[in-house]
Specification:
This protein is α/β, with parallel strands linked by helices and 122 residues long. It contains four helices and five strands, in the order ββαβαβαβα.
């Protein structure tokens, strides 16, 4: 698998993608997150995309954005994505998901994303 997933001591779920990542791997990561958050009231999710190679076609990016937006367990989640300083590889996914009501905030720096998820940064 080209991703790792864990919950830290602040109950922030970290999903880190690395190497080459395709549609099925990203969907699998979402499905694993959903299994972890089924009984959670407060869902905070950090998706690190700063060191991956996106293999998804434009159609797959759009489909994945719709998948995110239509996953009930994530509809009330507070989601931060980290794309690094020179990486906009998730822009189509986030735009499509956003138009369907999915809320995500993009950050260039990991520490800013964590601070925002903790409520330390507005």
């Amino acid at each position: 698998m080209a991703f790792s997933l864990f919950a830290d001591s602040d109950d922030i779920i970290h999903v880190t993608f690395f190497e080459e990542v395709d549609f099925n791997q990203r969907k699998t990561a979402v499905d694993q997150v959903v299994k972890q958050v089924l009984d959670c009231e407060k869902i905070r999710l950090l998706v690190d995309l700063s060191d991956f190679i996106d293999l998804m076609s434009l159609q797959e990016q759009e489909a994945f954005g719709l998948y995110l937006a239509n996953t009930p367990a994530l509809q009330k989640a507070k989601v931060a994505s980290v794309t690094g300083l020179n990486h906009d590889g998730n822009i189509v996914v986030e735009a499509v998901a956003f138009t369907q009501g999915y809320q995500v905030v993009n950050f260039k720096r990991h520490q800013d994303a964590i601070a925002w998820l903790k409520g330390e940064l507005n």
